[in-house]
Design goal:
Layout lengths: L12 H10 L5 H35 L5 H41 L6 H45 L3 H35 L5 H11 L3 H27 L7 H36 L6 H10 L19
Amino acid sequence: MDLAPEELQFLSLTDILRESVAIPKRSPKTFYLMTLALIFPLSFAILAHSLFTHPILNQLASDPLADPSQTRHEWTLLLTFQFCYLIFLFAFSLLSTAAVVFTVASLYTSKPVSFTSTISAIPKVFKRLFITFTWVSLLMFVYNALLIGFLVLFVIAVDSRNALLSFFSFMVILVLFLGVHVYITALWHLASVVSVLEPIYGLAAMKKSYELLKGRARMAFILVFGYLAICGVIGGIFGSVVVHGGDRYGVLWRIVVGGFLVGVLVIVNLVGLLVQSVFYYVCKSYHHQGIDKTALHDHLGGYLGEYVPLKSSVQMENLDA
């Protein structure tokens, strides 16, 4: 991103993608190691976990009258695996976010970049991201409760053949998923960047993210929806060919397709993390909030033990805007 801060607001979706894809070229070794150590395990786990849960679910569904002790054992195994998977997913998602956002910001401020320095900064960054994620999780809990409520209402309406109630509940579900879910995801991603690059996190980072999205919500919607759609397609093909395709495809073909899809998801996740970093600077520029590279440089140094207490200018706000 060699553009002046005030020019970033004029970047189109294509420009953002182009700038994001070009960033790893500035430090290929760092991004290669980061991708191998963090993003690859995350992407592999996202796709491969169904390979382990599918046989257990099949066993539970195929023999509902099985020995109760055996059934309890399978449910325990399934729930344990799912719990471990969610912990792994949560941890590597935050680790990947912290690493990419920190590295992109370091390159943006011409700060020396290496995989070692990025890993050294992650512990402090992770704590801030964890607090922000906790607040986002509370918001997602409320959203999921509403979604489940209207899904139940939709099922009841269909069962009772109430056309008006069915249509109403379906439209609400559609709005909740396409509108609210995508917006919360965009809010979360931007708040994650804010938590790393500014001296705020948690609820304050979410509020700042909400303010930055004003005027750029449509662009954020397209980016997030596109990312979710691509991930959905990859997951669908993986499930169809690799997980459920044993009767139609040979082992070798399933391995090849599975490996290819994991590789594609790795690229998609890396580009997605780069895009959310670039989009932060675009939003800052759009709202005419100055990006003090010197102050940002010092702020990043704080994660490595080089930190001097921030002055008000380090908040990277243009107070006169």
